[in-house]
Amino acid sequence: MRVRHGGRAEPAGPGGRLTVANRYATSTFSIQLASGASHLVVIGAHRDSTHEAVTSNPGAFGTTPLAVPQISPRLAAYLVAYPDGPQV
Question: What is the average per-residue pLDDT within 47-72?
Fold first, then answer.
């Protein structure tokens, strides 16, 4: 995959690979995306590091998944089945 910089294509990273890291929400919040749509992020839900919610509010995300002491067992079980959280 190539990434465009100033009109020219360059390899995306080491070996020409694009690296994307998972980020996990440390709180529940709603954010307005550039498209104008409101986007809900639930505590513990994951987004990749290039998602607009992460780039707009990086302080609301961590690199390690949340565990049961930080979130309820019911929410933890839900996030196992649906790691992106509710899709509203």
Answer: 87
